[in-house]
Design the sequence.
């Protein structure tokens, strides 16, 4: 690519040198902790993962001199949705491998996990890596959602690894992809293929986190991008004073993104799905809450405001949850449904085959939303919540409710709503310094684990609210994060998904302040765009979620 085709920021970011934890700045040794167990169902997990269960947590520490490590060839896979920083994981891995031995090689499997199975790959060279340093996106090798969980796929993967001499695969993915990475690691160990598997915690959703994984990469940048946009919208609302902005935010099931954006921008209302479920709120309860907020703001003369809606809300409303689960069963491989040529025919088919309660709920929601609920599931069997326009549903229902309040004389304002959905805007943004540094460190750590012959580990960087120099790098056995959950009718070993904890510090802080933020227009915060150059206080700040979780504000 011609340098002239790049923006000044692109050119400058290409030169950015990610900050590393002190321990990763030279030769490292692997310090092993005590044997581990799993977060739940230990006996079953141990039986399912006899080779990879119980391994110790590893911490990387500074070594006096470089020990000689065997030459390795590594294949890397980007799995699932894009998240800012993926290219830096690969750059960190590449640089780490080359520092260990110049003859080490890195291959990229193309288009996600399917690249491994279909033998589509490229060798990643210095020139390619340099082109993608500190950039957003996953376009260096592409990503995909093919589910890697079948021994036949594993065997096909082993064939290409043996052909290329690959001894290790790095899977950069979310909770489902890392679960499958662990299954792959176990399978390759059991079958003595000599192929190691290492995972890396990726997802903007922020739901792959636990005691050892403080946050998944991409969450920081994505939330900062959305918060900038929310701040801009709040400023616009406050200027024209005529619109209510309903802003749906990506994040799949978990509301971490909505909560983080609320902490960064102080909207008038932010719905948290986990709270809706906990309080067993109905759709009507949510609409009433919104309508009453609007009515009380109108009394003070404010006919504008900001309302944040988490993407997965619909799945957390108890009656909707039942409906979605019935739809999952009804529509799985349903040739009859798929053959119905028109929307109305499909709608009637669904109504006839649901239980009476769910049929009623299905009939009560607008046909367009009903249709969105019946669309294809993703390869992991999840409803594609990003396609469900909950914000539009809420606007429509709020309009009706406000009209009722008006007839009763309880509302005298004017309601004009604008809907937004922020998701894809943030997933490939130029990574913040935090994500650029964090991802580079994750990749570098993976190279150390591989060279030491480790398998079934996920890379972990902790102490993230301190300067990068003080971060703690290491590896955590993936089995340590697993339990057994019922998924699509079957008991499965899975990494425990982290939803918003209502007794956790981030939600508690939000809950203590939301009543103030609901009122007037003085509480809005306008975070502005991500800053890459300038003082660390502005450029290197981690998320509010992380700060609060660590007892800092
Ligand atoms: P991952 O969990 O794979 O990281 O994906 C995150 C996400 O961006 C969700 O927030 C969103 O629901 C989903 O991907 C959208 O999927 P798609 O990219 O297939 O439209």
Sequence:
């Amino acid at each position: 690519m011609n340098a002239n085709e790049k923006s000044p920021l692109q050119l400058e970011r290409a030169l950015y040198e990610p900050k590393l934890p002190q321990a990763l700045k030279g030769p490292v040794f692997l310090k092993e902790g005590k044997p581990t167990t799993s977060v739940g169902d230990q006996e079953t997990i141990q039986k399912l993962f006899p080779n990879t269960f119980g391994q110790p947590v590893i911490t990387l520490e500074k070594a006096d001199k470089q020990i000689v490590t065997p030459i390795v060839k590594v294949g890397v896979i980007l799995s699932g949705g894009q998240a800012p920083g993926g290219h830096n994981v690969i750059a960190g891995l590449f640089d780490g491998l080359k520092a260990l031995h110049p003859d080490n090689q890195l291959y990229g499997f193309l288009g996600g996990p399917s690249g491994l199975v279909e033998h589509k790959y490229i060798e990643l060279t210095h020139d390619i890596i340099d082109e993608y340093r500190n950039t957003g996106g996953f376009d260096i090798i592409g990503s995909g959602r093919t589910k890697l969980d079948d021994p036949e796929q594993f065997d096909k993967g082993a064939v290409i690894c043996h052909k290329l001499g690959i001894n290790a695969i790095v899977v950069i993915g979310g909770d489902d992809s890392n679960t499958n990475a662990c299954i792959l690691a176990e399978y390759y160990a059991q079958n003595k293929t000599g192929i190691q598997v290492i995972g890396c915690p990726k997802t903007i959703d922020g739901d792959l986190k636990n005691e050892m994984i403080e946050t998944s990469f991409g969450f920081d940048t994505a939330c900062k991008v959305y918060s900038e946009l929310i701040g801009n919208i709040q400023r616009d609302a406050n200027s024209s004073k005529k619109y209510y902005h309903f802003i749906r935010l990506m994040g799949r099931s978990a509301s971490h993104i909505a909560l983080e954006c609320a902490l960064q921008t102080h909207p008038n209302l932010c719905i948290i799905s986990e709270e809706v479920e906990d309080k067993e709120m109905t759709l009507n309860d949510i609409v009433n809450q919104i309508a009453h907020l609007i009515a009380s703001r109108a009394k003070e003369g404010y006919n504008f405001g900001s309302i944040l809606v988490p993407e997965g809300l619909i799945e957390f409303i108890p009656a909707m949850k039942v409906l979605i689960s019935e739809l999952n069963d009804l529509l799985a491989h349903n040739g009859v449904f798929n053959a119905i040529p028109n929307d109305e025919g499909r709608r009637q088919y669904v109504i006839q085959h649901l239980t009476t309660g769910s049929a009623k709920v299905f009939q009560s929601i607008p046909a367009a939303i009903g249709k969105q609920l019946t669309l294809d599931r993703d390869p992991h069997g999840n409803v594609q919540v990003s396609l469900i326009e909950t914000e539009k549903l809420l606007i429509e229902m709020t309009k009706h409710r406000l009209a009722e309040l008006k007839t009763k004389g309880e509302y005298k304002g004017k309601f004009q709503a604008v809907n937004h959905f922020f998701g894809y805007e943030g997933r490939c943004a130029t990574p913040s310094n935090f994500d650029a540094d964090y991802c580079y460190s994750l990749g570098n750590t993976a190279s150390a684990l591989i060279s030491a012959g480790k398998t079934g580990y996920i890379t972990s960087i902790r102490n993230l609210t301190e300067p990068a120099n003080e971060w703690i790098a290491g590896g955590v056995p993936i089995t340590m994060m697993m339990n057994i959950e019922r998924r699509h009718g079957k008991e499965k070993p899975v990494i425990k998904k982290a939803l918003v904890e209502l007794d956790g510090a981030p939600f508690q802080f939000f809950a203590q302040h939301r009543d103030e933020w609901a009122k007037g227009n003085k509480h809005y915060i306008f975070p502005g765009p991500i800053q890459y150059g300038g003082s660390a206080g502005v450029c290197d700040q981690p998320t509010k979620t992380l700060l609060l979780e660590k007892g800092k504000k």
